[in-house]
Prior knowledge:
The complex is a heterodimer.
Chain A: H1 9-25, E1 44-50, H2 63-77, H3 85-90, E2 97-101, H4 113-125, E3 133-137, H5 140-145, E4 158-161, E5 174-176, E6 179-181, H6 185-189, E7 192-196, E8 198-202, E9 206-208, H7 226-229, H8 232-237, H9 240-245, E10 246-257, E11 269-278, H10 281-298, H11 312-318, E12 332-336
Parallel strand pairs in A: 1-12, 2-3, 2-7, 3-4, 7-10, 8-10
Antiparallel strand pairs in A: 1-11, 5-6, 8-9, 10-11
Helix pairs in contact in A: 2-4
Chain B: H1 3-32, E1 36-37, E2 40-42, E3 47-49, H2 54-58, H3 62-68, E4 70-80, E5 84-93, H4 96-104, E6 119-122, E7 126-131, E8 134-140, H5 147-159
Antiparallel strand pairs in B: 1-2, 2-4, 3-4, 4-5, 5-8, 6-7, 7-8
Amino acid sequence: MKDMPEKSRRDFLRDCAIGALAAGAAPLAFAGDVNPAYANQPKSKVIIARDPALYGSGANPEATRIEKILDRAMQAFSDSADPIAPWKRIFQPSEVVGLKVNTIAGPGLSTHVALVEAICERLKQAGVKTGNIIVWDRTNGELERAGFTLSSDPNRECVIGTDSKDIGYQETVMTFGTVKTRLSNLLIRCDAMINVPILKHHSGAGITLAMKNMYGVNNNPDKLHANNCCPAVADLNMLPPIRTKFRLVVADAMTGCFEAGPGFKPQYAWKYNGIIVASDPVAIDQTAWDIIETQRATHGLKPLPQVGLTPKYIAVAANAEHRLGTNDPSRIALEEV
Amino acid sequence: MNNLARRTFILTLLATSGMAACQQHAATAANFFPDSAPGWSKSSEVRTFSPDRLSEYIDGDAEKYLKAGIESASTADYKYKNQMQATVDVYTMSSADAAKTVLDSEPAMDAQTPTLGDAARLYAQSLIFRKGPYLVRMVAYQESPQLPPALLDLGHALESKLTR
Lengths: 337, 164
């Protein structure tokens, strides 16, 4: 799986299919392998870094300012004075690292390319090989519409959708609770994952940030929207490849959506000018809920529970059956830098 | 014709008519989108989604359209003077009431209400209107003082094509 530059990209794509078969043959573990970053910590750190001048006078945030808030957030997250050190601590040079972005809403409300480029730069500086970085989402079409350039050039990061020829989903159906699904071969292929979601209201789930972004790693998200996506979001996040590979959330909160999401409707979007970093997906989702409620209140909109959109899956993800993280504010160390 | 043959014949007939209906929807939807309007030109093919595939396009938004009753959704991209990009969605709902239900479910905020279709809302970067069973949503990705009147021009061009 290592040293992708020595292999052709065609080999990599073929190996995705082989790896999927191998994973399918292995026994599926569903307990005892929780990522220690996600649970059993005394407090979960959630770092918000914002820059009111992020967008300058243009329509897009400035790349140099994005790099600065990314460094501020990551350094605060890991108590480090060095911007590279946090990445070295989390990822090994030999690993294949995936970035799961969120591009379903098109150009107005998708993970910014400049943020992804800044993360990739830091990963490379931390020793991760360029050809071992995979930026991915459900489809090539959505990635391109969001401004990403698809690439299978081994000299640069791979940018690819699960719907690409030779990728697809695992044959094996994985289950937990209410969820029966097949996961992307790209997820199986990666050793470690970074979740790079968008801060959004969601007309079904209430809000979407870290955990709901996993609806882009499986083959049947349309079957998981009943009852405010609860407990489906929490159940999906329990599947071992998701639970154990996602080590970090770097949420793109430069532009957020406070109503009628998750599609881009400019009248319900606002510039929050920030990014949010955490390793606990429950804590960061709880924080996102608070941010969206605050913005709704400024527009005179009712709190989500009053309009039947409580993001119930957040509390379920924290319960004894799931233990994916904490939604208890007293156990969330929230810091704005 | 024995039972098995009759069942096979009926299933084939249903499948064929379903496919034909879907193709007809797509063909009709393509006609909604003008190739051009003052300052605007269509920059993509029209994509059409049936109700069972709607979430592939709009994810969690799909639920409210399905609940209200939708027949299909079609979308195409436009460019304004080769500078600004916009996406236009046409939702063909099952009735005028269904189109009204979806529009009314979204808070009006500080919308202007131009004369267009049966009801319309104009914002700095978007235009939404309904006409009969059709709900049209236009979203631009940049802000500009030119944009609201330009969106209205495109809206009028599209409205004239919304016929069943």
